[in-house]
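User: C-alpha coordinates for this one?
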Amino acid sequence: MLIDSYNQKGEKLRRIRLPQEIFEIEMNSDLVHQVMVSQMANRRQVIAHTKTRAEVSGGGRKPWRQKGTGRARHGSIRSPIWIGGGVAFGPRKEKVFKKKIPKKMRRKALFMVLSSKVKDKELLVLDKLETKEPQTKIMAKMMENLRKKIKDFKEGSVLFLLAKKDENLIKSLRNIKKVKTILARESNVLDLLKYKYLIIPKESIKVLKETFLKS
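Assistant:
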Protein backbone atom coordinates (compact mmCIF):
# COMPACT_ATOMS: atom_id res chain seq x y z
CA MET A 1 0.00 0.00 0.00
CA LEU A 2 1.35 3.43 -1.01
CA ILE A 3 0.56 6.56 1.00
CA ASP A 4 1.65 10.19 0.77
CA SER A 5 4.17 11.52 3.27
CA TYR A 6 4.47 15.16 4.35
CA ASN A 7 6.91 17.45 6.11
CA GLN A 8 6.04 19.52 9.18
CA LYS A 9 4.93 22.42 6.97
CA GLY A 10 2.23 20.26 5.38
CA GLU A 11 4.03 19.97 2.03
CA LYS A 12 3.66 16.68 0.17
CA LEU A 13 7.01 14.95 -0.31
CA ARG A 14 6.76 11.45 -1.75
CA ARG A 15 4.74 8.27 -1.53
CA ILE A 16 5.96 5.56 0.80
CA ARG A 17 4.98 1.93 1.07
CA LEU A 18 3.21 0.70 4.21
CA PRO A 19 3.71 -2.94 5.27
CA GLN A 20 0.60 -4.83 4.24
CA GLU A 21 0.94 -7.22 7.22
CA ILE A 22 0.03 -4.28 9.48
CA PHE A 23 -1.98 -1.82 7.40
CA GLU A 24 -4.04 -4.10 5.13
CA ILE A 25 -5.93 -6.31 7.59
CA GLU A 26 -9.66 -6.88 7.22
CA MET A 27 -11.74 -5.51 10.09
CA ASN A 28 -13.38 -7.81 12.63
CA SER A 29 -15.36 -5.52 14.94
CA ASP A 30 -16.13 -8.30 17.44
CA LEU A 31 -12.45 -8.99 18.01
CA VAL A 32 -11.60 -5.29 18.30
CA HIS A 33 -14.43 -4.81 20.82
CA GLN A 34 -13.26 -7.79 22.87
CA VAL A 35 -9.70 -6.47 23.06
CA MET A 36 -10.89 -2.94 23.86
CA VAL A 37 -13.10 -4.17 26.74
CA SER A 38 -10.22 -6.24 28.16
CA GLN A 39 -7.90 -3.21 28.05
CA MET A 40 -10.47 -1.05 29.82
CA ALA A 41 -10.93 -3.72 32.48
CA ASN A 42 -7.17 -4.10 32.98
CA ARG A 43 -6.76 -0.34 33.43
CA ARG A 44 -9.58 -0.20 35.95
CA GLN A 45 -8.54 0.81 39.46
CA VAL A 46 -10.56 -0.63 42.33
CA ILE A 47 -11.19 2.25 44.75
CA ALA A 48 -14.51 1.50 46.50
CA HIS A 49 -13.97 -0.58 49.61
CA THR A 50 -16.28 -1.07 52.61
CA LYS A 51 -15.55 -2.67 55.98
CA THR A 52 -17.37 -5.72 57.21
CA ARG A 53 -18.52 -6.15 60.82
CA ALA A 54 -15.24 -7.93 61.50
CA GLU A 55 -13.21 -4.84 60.52
CA VAL A 56 -15.03 -1.92 62.17
CA SER A 57 -14.05 -0.81 65.66
CA GLY A 58 -16.09 -1.29 68.82
CA GLY A 59 -18.56 -3.98 69.78
CA GLY A 60 -16.46 -5.72 72.37
CA ARG A 61 -19.43 -6.38 74.62
CA LYS A 62 -23.16 -6.91 74.34
CA PRO A 63 -24.95 -3.48 74.26
CA TRP A 64 -27.52 -4.53 76.85
CA ARG A 65 -28.78 -7.72 78.44
CA GLN A 66 -30.74 -10.19 76.36
CA LYS A 67 -34.10 -9.95 78.16
CA GLY A 68 -36.10 -7.63 80.32
CA THR A 69 -35.28 -4.24 78.77
CA GLY A 70 -38.16 -4.07 76.31
CA ARG A 71 -35.75 -3.43 73.47
CA ALA A 72 -34.74 -5.67 70.59
CA ARG A 73 -31.95 -8.10 71.36
CA HIS A 74 -28.48 -7.20 70.06
CA GLY A 75 -25.11 -8.85 70.40
CA SER A 76 -22.80 -6.17 68.98
CA ILE A 77 -22.86 -2.56 67.84
CA ARG A 78 -20.82 -3.70 64.83
CA SER A 79 -23.93 -5.25 63.30
CA PRO A 80 -24.81 -3.89 59.81
CA ILE A 81 -28.13 -2.54 61.10
CA TRP A 82 -26.34 -0.18 63.50
CA ILE A 83 -25.01 3.24 62.51
CA GLY A 84 -21.22 2.88 62.34
CA GLY A 85 -21.49 -0.86 62.03
CA GLY A 86 -20.12 -3.03 59.25
CA VAL A 87 -21.53 -2.98 55.71
CA ALA A 88 -23.27 -6.07 54.37
CA PHE A 89 -22.60 -6.94 50.71
CA GLY A 90 -20.69 -3.70 50.06
CA PRO A 91 -17.97 -3.23 47.39
CA ARG A 92 -14.61 -4.78 48.21
CA LYS A 93 -11.18 -4.03 46.75
CA GLU A 94 -10.40 -7.74 46.45
CA LYS A 95 -12.62 -7.96 43.37
CA VAL A 96 -10.58 -8.70 40.24
CA PHE A 97 -11.69 -7.08 36.95
CA LYS A 98 -8.72 -8.14 34.82
CA LYS A 99 -9.38 -10.01 31.59
CA LYS A 100 -6.78 -12.08 29.76
CA ILE A 101 -6.58 -11.89 25.99
CA PRO A 102 -4.09 -13.95 23.95
CA LYS A 103 -1.17 -11.97 22.52
CA LYS A 104 -2.04 -12.94 18.93
CA MET A 105 -5.58 -11.60 19.34
CA ARG A 106 -4.33 -8.29 20.77
CA ARG A 107 -1.86 -7.91 17.92
CA LYS A 108 -4.46 -8.78 15.27
CA ALA A 109 -6.92 -6.24 16.69
CA LEU A 110 -4.18 -3.57 16.70
CA PHE A 111 -3.46 -4.21 13.01
CA MET A 112 -7.18 -4.02 12.23
CA VAL A 113 -7.51 -0.59 13.86
CA LEU A 114 -4.37 0.69 12.10
CA SER A 115 -5.76 -0.60 8.78
CA SER A 116 -9.07 1.15 9.40
CA LYS A 117 -7.21 4.43 10.03
CA VAL A 118 -5.62 4.14 6.60
CA LYS A 119 -8.90 3.17 4.94
CA ASP A 120 -10.78 6.09 6.55
CA LYS A 121 -7.96 8.54 5.64
CA GLU A 122 -7.27 9.24 9.31
CA LEU A 123 -3.59 8.28 9.16
CA LEU A 124 -0.95 10.90 8.39
CA VAL A 125 2.70 10.00 7.78
CA LEU A 126 5.36 12.66 8.40
CA ASP A 127 8.82 12.38 6.88
CA LYS A 128 10.27 13.68 10.13
CA LEU A 129 8.90 14.93 13.46
CA GLU A 130 11.26 16.97 15.61
CA THR A 131 11.70 20.20 17.52
CA LYS A 132 14.89 21.73 18.88
CA GLU A 133 13.24 23.16 21.98
CA PRO A 134 10.16 22.32 24.06
CA GLN A 135 7.66 24.92 22.86
CA THR A 136 3.95 24.26 22.51
CA LYS A 137 3.66 27.15 20.06
CA ILE A 138 5.90 25.37 17.53
CA MET A 139 3.83 22.19 17.51
CA ALA A 140 0.54 24.11 17.49
CA LYS A 141 1.75 26.00 14.41
CA MET A 142 2.76 22.70 12.76
CA MET A 143 -0.71 21.22 13.29
CA GLU A 144 -2.30 24.39 11.95
CA ASN A 145 -0.19 24.10 8.77
CA LEU A 146 -1.12 20.43 8.37
CA ARG A 147 -4.84 21.19 8.68
CA LYS A 148 -4.64 24.04 6.17
CA LYS A 149 -2.78 22.12 3.47
CA ILE A 150 -4.07 18.53 3.87
CA LYS A 151 -7.77 18.30 3.04
CA ASP A 152 -8.29 14.95 4.83
CA PHE A 153 -6.78 16.25 8.08
CA LYS A 154 -9.54 18.24 9.77
CA GLU A 155 -10.48 19.25 13.31
CA GLY A 156 -10.42 16.40 15.81
CA SER A 157 -8.34 14.63 18.42
CA VAL A 158 -4.83 13.50 17.42
CA LEU A 159 -2.56 10.69 18.59
CA PHE A 160 1.18 10.82 17.84
CA LEU A 161 3.18 7.58 17.65
CA LEU A 162 6.79 8.41 18.49
CA ALA A 163 9.65 6.17 17.41
CA LYS A 164 11.57 6.94 20.61
CA LYS A 165 11.16 9.01 23.74
CA ASP A 166 11.75 12.68 22.89
CA GLU A 167 11.21 15.03 25.83
CA ASN A 168 11.10 18.11 23.59
CA LEU A 169 8.26 16.64 21.53
CA ILE A 170 6.36 15.29 24.52
CA LYS A 171 6.54 18.62 26.39
CA SER A 172 5.62 20.57 23.25
CA LEU A 173 2.53 18.47 22.49
CA ARG A 174 1.14 17.68 25.93
CA ASN A 175 -0.45 21.12 26.46
CA ILE A 176 -2.37 21.05 23.18
CA LYS A 177 -6.02 20.14 23.66
CA LYS A 178 -7.10 16.66 22.47
CA VAL A 179 -3.53 15.61 21.64
CA LYS A 180 -1.59 12.68 23.12
CA THR A 181 1.81 11.10 22.45
CA ILE A 182 2.74 7.44 22.98
CA LEU A 183 5.69 5.35 21.87
CA ALA A 184 5.14 3.26 18.75
CA ARG A 185 6.20 0.10 20.59
CA GLU A 186 3.38 0.75 23.11
CA SER A 187 0.65 1.06 20.48
CA ASN A 188 -2.68 -0.31 21.65
CA VAL A 189 -6.28 -0.58 20.48
CA LEU A 190 -7.78 1.63 23.19
CA ASP A 191 -5.62 4.70 22.50
CA LEU A 192 -6.03 4.32 18.71
CA LEU A 193 -9.82 4.20 19.02
CA LYS A 194 -9.95 7.09 21.47
CA TYR A 195 -8.32 9.55 19.05
CA LYS A 196 -9.68 10.33 15.58
CA TYR A 197 -6.43 11.02 13.72
CA LEU A 198 -3.12 9.19 13.91
CA ILE A 199 0.15 10.91 13.02
CA ILE A 200 3.17 8.67 12.49
CA PRO A 201 6.72 9.80 11.73
CA LYS A 202 8.25 7.60 9.03
CA GLU A 203 10.71 6.03 11.48
CA SER A 204 7.83 4.85 13.70
CA ILE A 205 6.66 2.50 10.93
CA LYS A 206 9.96 0.67 11.25
CA VAL A 207 9.46 0.42 15.02
CA LEU A 208 5.98 -1.06 14.50
CA LYS A 209 7.42 -3.72 12.19
CA GLU A 210 10.25 -4.59 14.56
CA THR A 211 7.97 -4.73 17.60
CA PHE A 212 4.91 -6.54 16.28
CA LEU A 213 6.21 -8.58 13.33
CA LYS A 214 9.56 -9.75 14.66
CA SER A 215 8.16 -12.85 16.35
